[in-house]
Amino acid sequence: MKTTAEYADAIEAKQLEIKAHALESQSAETPDMAKLDQLDAELKSLTDGLAVAKRLEDAAAKADASIADLKKVTSPAPVTVQSEIKNLGSAVVSSKAFRALAAKESDHASMTIDLDLKTAFTSSAGMAPQITRTGEIVETINYPLTIVDALDQIPALQPTVRIQQETLTATAQEIAEAGGYPEGAISFADVDFTVRKIGSILPISDEELEDIPALENLINSRIVFDVISRLNNQLVNGAGTGTLVKGMLHTDNVSTANCGTGSLNKTGSRAIFLAKQKLAVSGACVPNVVIINPDDWGSLVTEVASSSGVYMNTAAISTEPDRIWGMRVVQSDRVAVGTVILFDSRFVQLRPLRGIDVQIGYNGTDFGTGKKSIRADIRTAFVVKRPQAILVLTTFSA
């Protein structure tokens, strides 16, 4: 890069060139304004370069000055401390009694030696070293909330979601000329799904909230996870009694199949394929989601032929993302080993009346005891519009 002096010379030369071009253009019939613009741009570039060079040279000068100042600083002369602590041998040899004995001024020696018999200052008897937390938190073991993520969510507008299920009597057939039309029948029945509330509350002292500013956000996130984790479980296992969500395993009229009987007396990916076919027929749907325990999924992926040892499911299974026979695989420990659930997600939905609500306030005697309570809840309905679009496969094995 040029120095400031070089930039100054270049700027002076460029200014003279601009002046000469301007005088030449005054006498010309058509002034060359494009060249004048180019010269102006080149002059501006040189001016900007000069400013940068000036800043760099100033910075270098300051650095040189700082280094010179540091070299002027001399370290204090080392202090030599003469230790006054002597061991037993040196204390005996330097005593007056021993010197008299050595000079044969005495035929015996008696002496008193002062020794330091204090306890050593170790970490066990003295001051323990300071230990500071790293700030890392290892969360409680919880499986990801995969089931909730697999469902479509459509807002509920009222505390009860009411749908209508159709019953159609199909009587259509061919008709002879001038013949009568067969009469069909269609009816609709209301089916209600009640919005349920799932919540949790956690008390915490004022001191904890004041002394650890990040704790409130941490607790908010964990209590929200607790609420969604409960919902995640209930979508499968909820009994539907009282205020409980009714999950897929307890929904009436769902399809079922047992891997140990009939046409489904198969194992591994073949059993899942036959279950998919059965559900497609009985539920008149297109199964696109499979919920399976991680242990069963691991057995499926690593299933090998007994004779050749070749992996059997390379054509049926893909793992990025996990799919089997074209269906999305949802691994969840909320489904027991040996049970697999297949369904068409068009007919299984979450209908939240509102999302997660987190509040902080006083609960019971909190005010008098210097505490606050963090509360979180969600209100949602689990809607199964067509129970026959769900199939529960039992006694499954790879």
Write a brief structural summary.
The chain is α+β, with helices and mostly antiparallel strands and 398 residues long.
Structural account:
- With 398 residues, the protein is α+β, with helices and mostly antiparallel strands.
- The protein has nine helices and 13 strands.
- 33% of the residues lie in helices and 22% in strands.
- The strands form three sheets. A seven-stranded mixed β-sheet has the order 5-13-10-6-9-8-7.
- Helix 1 runs antiparallel to helix 2.
- The longest helix has 40 residues.
Average pLDDT reading: 83
Share of residues in strands: 15-25%
For the record, give the distance between the C-alpha atoms at the N and C termini, rounded to a whole number: 71 Å
**In sequence order, what are the helices and strands, one letter per element?**
HHHHHEEEEHHEHEHEEEEEEE
Helix content: 25-40%
The major sheet is characterized as: 7 strands, mixed
Instruction: Give the overall silhouette.
Output: extended
Task: Classify the secondary structure makeup into a structural class.
Answer: alpha+beta
Q: How do the strands line up in the largest sheet?
A: 5-13-10-6-9-8-7
Number of helices: 9
**Count of strand segments:** 13
As a whole number of angstroms, the C-alpha radius of gyration is 43 Å
Poorly predicted regions are none
